[in-house]
Amino acid sequence: MSDIKLVDFQGQPALRLRAPDGSTAIVLLHGGHLVSWVPLGQGEQLYLSPTTRYGAGSSVRGGMPVIFPQFNTRGPLPRHGLVRTRGWQAVESVVRGGHALGVLRFDSNAETLAIWPQAFSLELTFSLAGNTIEIEMAVTNTGETPLDFTAALHTYLRCNDVLKAQLEGLQTCAYEDCLKGEFHQQWGDVLSVIGPIDRIYRHSGQPLVLRELGRKLEIKLDGFEDVVVWNPGAEGAAALPDMPDADWTQMLCVEAACVREPITVMPDDEWVGLQTLSC
């Protein structure tokens, strides 16, 4: 039996999606933030810190934070932009063709315009069924001047042990090592994590695969030109107040992103990016 409804999640209103086959997802209205995805017959696929903060002004550690219109501190705006710490509106929730579908929207307002004088509308569409979830990010320029932005879906993937995980699909891709301030090319056919990592890869277009013993998760991107791979490592996790020190081994961020070259959208036009996760 399927149902889609608003629920309470950690004291916050959330859109709960349940497909007819039983796969589920939960999206906070705060930040348009996906905090849970449980595919058909499997366990939770996203990492969510047990010590994260919720509510006004907070950014949830884990799940899938929405980064817009600025990535990290690469610009004059607040870190990671304007939408991850503000309330969104649920505008649609249906079951259609065996899929659970939910749409959230954030429109620029007096508060955002005071920080960044650009009118926009941002929609996230979540569609899930079986072992797959699709997240579509659509940005519409509702202003009168060109809209330049960077963006990312900052996806925290759950790992049993990141030290034993491998990420495939980045071979020959050029990347920026943000920890060292250097530029390199990925030569190995797999990427392994042995400590802190913060890299921005130029996406080659091929699917990525996160592998662990007994588990495989495929990541497909469309419209996103970059892939960010991030893990804070032991020292970095110890410096984070909203994440247990040992939990760095339980996650790996593999982010659909447009970071190195801003996207430009003309007035009344739209840009769309899609991230598909399957396991």
Automatic annotation (TrEMBL):
Transmembrane segments: none annotated. InterPro entries: Aldose_1/G6P_1-epimerase (IPR008183), G6P_1-epimerase (IPR025532), Gal_mutarotase_sf_dom (IPR011013), GH-type_carb-bd (IPR014718). The keyword Isomerase applies. It catalyses: alpha-D-glucose 6-phosphate = beta-D-glucose 6-phosphate. Coiled coil: none annotated. It comes from the Bacteria. CDD domains: D-hex-6-P-epi_like (cd09020). Its EC number is 5.1.3.15. Keywords: Isomerase. Pfam families: Aldose_epim (PF01263). Belongs to the glucose-6-phosphate 1-epimerase family. PANTHER family: APOSPORY-ASSOCIATED PROTEIN C-RELATED, GLUCOSE-6-PHOSPHATE 1-EPIMERASE. This is Putative glucose-6-phosphate 1-epimerase. It comes from Ideonella paludis. The lineage of its organism: Bacteria, Pseudomonadati, Pseudomonadota, Betaproteobacteria, Burkholderiales.
